[in-house]
Write the structure tokens for this entry.
Amino acid sequence: MQNYLTLPPFIAIVLAVSATGSLFRPGDWYKQLKKPSWTPPGWLFGPAWAVLYIAIAVSGWLTWQAAGVTLVLAVWAIQLVFNAVWSWVMFGRKQIGAAMLTLCALWLFVALYAVLVWPISKSASQLFWPYLAWVTFAGSLNFAIWRLNRQA
């Protein structure tokens, strides 16, 4: 039986991570960068991340409900750290190449979590698949922007 009263702390943790992203908005610097033609419109990022952050919180909560505090939950937390750091590196520091490396680490920990949590909670793993797809797409976009703006 799931204890839904324990879900709010996971939501709070993920909201804190999402708030760090809002501290570093793209701004004029990002608008002036060359971007590939397949760059999504800016309005899409907010709704996409809202859905993903809900899935991330629920996935972590399901893992905790099924197994408690484990290495798998630590991997869940580590991917959140890289998630938060990426916005700071990309938009706060304006370091496109370093942001790409951060995103590679994020991708690795998102994929690792999805694999490690599978035996514990298939639902928790499945909630990460759209996130992994989005981070893969974001990595492609980050790489394309880096290539188009090597002098930036």
User: Anything to note?
Assistant: The longest helix spans residues 122-148.
